[in-house]
Amino acid sequence: MARWGFVLDQEKCTGCNACQIACKDRNHLEPGKNFRRSDTVCLKENGITKYAHFSGGCHHCGEPACLAACPFDAMRKTEEGIIVVDEALCRGCGACERACMYGAVYVSEWSHKAMKCDGCAELRAQGRQPACVEACPTHCLEFRKIDEDEKEKALVAELTAAFVVNEKTTAKAKTSATEPVISSVKMETSVELAEALHKVSAFFAS
After folding, report:
1. Please, what is the Cα angle at 67 between 64 and 69, to 5 degrees?
2. pLDDT score for 63
3. What is residue 152's predicted lDDT score, i.e. its pLDDT?
4. Which residues contact 25 (CB under 8 A, 6 or more apart)?
5. CA-to-CA distance for 133 and 12, rounded, in angstroms?
6. 17: exposed, middle or buried (Cβ count in 10 Å: 0-12, 13-18, 19+)
7. For residue 127, how far is the Cα from the chain centroid?
C-alpha cells in the first residue's frame, strides 16, 4: 500500500514560517510547542554565503519508535501510513516522546495526552490539504503519496543519513529501523543538506 508523507521543494522555500504558524494555529498548540518547524541556516561554501531554508515535521515512519514504545497501544498507523494518537487510550506516560528521535511527539501539559502531527486528518476528510500545505505561499510543501522510484529513494536515504540526533547516536544508525517518510527535492549540495538537517534536528530536540 502506498505511503503518504510531506515533500519539500527546498529551492522554493523562503523560510517565511507560514507553515509553522498555520500548523500551530490549526492545532491550538500550547506555548513553546510545535508539530512543524521551519528554520534557516547560513552556509559558507568556497567563500560564498548561502541560506538554506527547511521545514520539518513528523516523518510518519514505516517502523515508528513511538508506536513500538507505547505500553497502552495508543499510537497507531493508518492505512495511509500516518501515525496518530488514540487519546482515549493514551495515559500521558511519555514513552512515545522519549522514543521519538525527531522530537515530533510531546505530552501536553494541558491535556496530559500525547500530541503529534496527523497530517490534518479532519481537513483532508473535507477534501482539503494539511494546514501547513495550504498556508505555503510558494507551494514548496506537498502532502502526497511518496514516490518510490529509485531516484527519490536515494534522496531519502541521503536525507536520513544527514540527520544528527545527539552526541551519542546518529540517525544513520537508527533510521534503518524507523524508516522515516521524508523527502526533499532540488537540494543544491550535500553540504547544504547536512547543515540544514543538523540544525533542524537540534532545533526539534531543544
Report:
1. 105
2. 86
3. 54
4. 131
5. 13
6. middle
7. 22
Q: Are 37 and 23 in contact (CB under 8 A)?
A: no
Tens of pLDDT, residue by residue over 104-114, are 999 999 999 99
Q: Exposed, middle or buried: residue 72 (CB in 10 Å: 0-12, 13-18, 19+)?
A: middle
Within the chain, how many helices (H) and strands (E) appear?
A: 8, 9
Residue 21 CB partners (closer than 8 Å, separation 6+)? 135
Q: Is the C-alpha dihedral spanning 50, 164, 156, 21 positive or negative?
A: negative
DSSP state letters, 83-109: EEE-TTT-----HHHHH-TTS--EE-T
**What is the predicted pLDDT for the residue at 169?**
38
Among positive and negative, which fits the CA dihedral 17, 23, 26, 27? negative
Please report the sign of the dihedral spanned by the C-alpha atoms of residue 79, residue 170, residue 177, residue 98. negative
Output the nine-digit C-alpha cell for 104: 515530533
Distance between CA atoms of 14 and 169, rounded to whole angstroms?
31
pLDDT for residue 194 is more than 60 = no
- Positions of E strands within the chain: 4-9, 37-45, 48-56, 75-77, 83-85, 106-107, 114-115, 141-145, 183-185
pLDDT digits (tens, 9 = 90+) for 85-140: 999 999 999 999 999 988 899 999 999 999 999 999 999 999 999 999 999 999 98
Question: What's the rounded Cα separation, in Å, for the pair 27 and 4?
Answer: 20
